Hints:
Structural class: alpha/beta
Shape: globular
CATH class of the largest domain: Alpha Beta
Distance between the termini: 21 Å
Number of helices: 11
Amino acid sequence: MRIHQNEETLPIRDRYRxxxxxxxxxxxxxxxxxxxxxxxxxRSITNPMHVRIDPSEQYQSLLGFGGAFTEAxxxxxxxxxxxxxxxxxxxxxxxxxxxxxRLCRVHMNSCDFSLGNYSCDDSAxxxxxxxxxxxxxxxxxxxxxxxxxxxxxxxxDLLVSPWSPPAWMKTNGTMNHGGSLLPEYxxxxxxxxxxxxxxxxxxxxxxxxxxxxxxxxxxxxxxSCIYSAEAEAxxxxxxxxxxxxxxxxxxxxxxxxxxxxxxxYDRAKRTLSNPEAAKYIWGIGFHWYxxxxxxxxxxxxxxxxxxxxxxxxxxxxxGVKLGQWDRGEIYAHNIMGDLNSGTVGWIDWNxxxxxxGGPNHAGNFCDAPVIVNTDTGEVFFQSSYYYMGxxxxxxxxxxxxxGCLMDGAYLELTAFLNPNGVIVVVALNRTGEExxxxxxxxxxRFTVLSPGHSIQTILLD
Length: 461
């Protein structure tokens, strides 16, 4: 049995006799729809697949799924009726009528998906942070988070990530175009994190963790800041980590990297080589913009088993394409690849954008699972919303990834054992052909027909 370090195995049922199938497919109206039969009409299927599920082979424990609260998304939601706004929030955060988001991200200071550059303290030289405030967040962003928590019925694990310190703390004197943190402001910047956490918690919003810097090797035309591995480790070891401990915030998780898969292993190895930093580091965040290098995710998972892996950002760039089905398939392929490589949580980028793919103060327009036409008030749910839901709605917090072996290459699968004993299998068919597969578990067999360009969640109990 494979066990993630310091985790107990989940109990397994003696038998699994029943199966429920939920399906989303391109050539139907099915959208996370429960279907009545495992297999449609009897037909001849070329190259049927066999899948063996082994619940005794247990891997990492799941933390959850979700998306990012951005100023752009909050602004878009403020432009539509309360009825539609509440509907979108419900569709994301409700466990019954929604897709059960429980792990989310928020930017500290501005990001490109803000209405412009801003920080919580733009008073140059204010090393005591006497002018620190979150008034801008209180306008739309914090009310959105509170509404989401109300629908979820409790706290949402919230990861705080900065895109840039205030301009006055940086070598280049601007929040944009890279630059780096001036050494004399390291302590001040660490206190900035502490004050942000406390101000949000005064609002009734618990903070789960922080990442040191979004994309620390990217010099962008928007909010950005460069950290080498050594600089990131030093900031954690000598400033952020000790301060959070001293201030009673040692339970806040610290994530490093928060950039692409291509350099994930190398960056983790270099940063964690500093033992004073390593003792404060809970995990490693990563993005997808360099490609699907899942081998780097798995290598990091295996070589640093005490550190957790979270996918912290991904989106499809170059604006909105309504109804383009492969959006969802791209999401599911990445989610499966990351989960099967040891990832414990998966956070999408913007949950909501307008019909241009913004607002974005740098013109970096992107797609999102929910698009709102702010001229007409129409709301569009993209395929990516439903494909995300096939994971987030059914795989519960604390679920363990389990063994899943298949004898063909036409489908992509992952399997989890929920704490209540139910097994969740997600099957992705990115081909245009129907594919039949048989699930075998503890001597029981269930045969499923997968339509072309579809995703299915099978619950076994």
